[in-house]
Amino acid sequence: MKSVQKLSGLSKGITISLLAAALLSLFISFAAQAEQSKVFGNYTVHYSVFTTDNLTPSVAKQYNIPRSKKRALLNVSVLKKTADGSSKPAKAIIRGTTTNLNQQLRELELREISEKGAIYYIAETPVDHAEILKYKLEITPQGEKITYTLSFQEQFYID
Q: Architecture of domain 2-155 in CATH?
């Protein structure tokens, strides 16, 4: 029975790793299509927004994200430039809001996903067809006293 439990645990680990890889590749895929970035000193903040219907059902289930054309997913990562000129993922405290054109403000609940050396911060928000959301993020990299502000807007076409 112990060998079955070990196999089951191994199977779970493999499943989680495969899902993490799927999520990572999905984020990278979307990042390549719609990624934007901004440099703040030694930090580069990469961000993208897309509707959650683009997630595969298994990835959406793994991360408890409802798939819908009417839900947007914000994906943020922070990279720190190292002494040798390369970049490495950095943890951060990120607070964010969205505002629509009617000035309705929504607080974003960003959550950290840390997988295989990558760190992402994601948040969901409802969207309507042709809606324009203005995003405002306050980003404080771990160990830093300065907070960087990133603002951008995105329009969603869901029909």
A: Sandwich (2.60)
